[in-house]
Amino acid sequence: MLQRRSAGAVIFLKEKGKIYYLLLNYSAIGFVGKTYWGLAKGTIEGGEKEMGTVLREVKEETGIADLEFIDGFREIEKYSFLYKGEDVSKTVSYLLAETKTKEVKLSFEHLDFKWLSYQEALKKLTFKNAQKIVQKAHDFILSKNL
User: Exposed, middle or buried, 64 (CB in 10 Å: 0-12/13-18/19+)?
Assistant: First the structure.
């Protein structure tokens, strides 16, 4: 089984007293015509640290470069999938990051993006794991009064 490690972020912005979360629409690898809504993430390369991967991937995928990481939040997601006939086990570390940039410039890897309220984000996210991560991030933001 192939092992893959990635890092991503729950990216949020505050506007007029409300919190909005950035979701990206991906093509499902190996499933023609299938898409899913998720969080920004990418493969950890070489000797990169998680924050370095998140900064690089978010810039490449969205054009956003002004992430401010929120200390104390780190969630792990594990899942497996079949890719070209081979089992892949993936571990993704998610950090929490705030941005002031609302404008998104999508890369070729994505089909769409949305800034959504907490409730809208939970409804739009395709996978339960991502919903749980956003729930934990939202609770963390509220508990820290960010």
Answer: buried
What is the pTM (predicted TM-score) of this model? Answer: 0.93
Domain that holds residue 64: 2-143
* Contact criterion met (CB below 8 Å) for 137 and 96: yes
3-state secondary structure of 84: coil
C-alpha distances out from residue 54 to 16, 69, 116, 124, Å: 26, 10, 20, 22
Q: How many domains is the chain partitioned into structurally?
A: 1
Residue matched to tokens 């992430």: 67
- Enter the tokens of residue 98: 């705030």
Q: Which amino acid is at 146?
A: L
Q: What are residue 137's phi and psi, to 5 degrees?
A: -65, -45
**In whole angstroms, how large is the CA radius of gyration of the chain?**
15
pLDDT digits (tens, 9 = 90+) for 103-132: 999 998 889 999 999 999 999 999 999 999
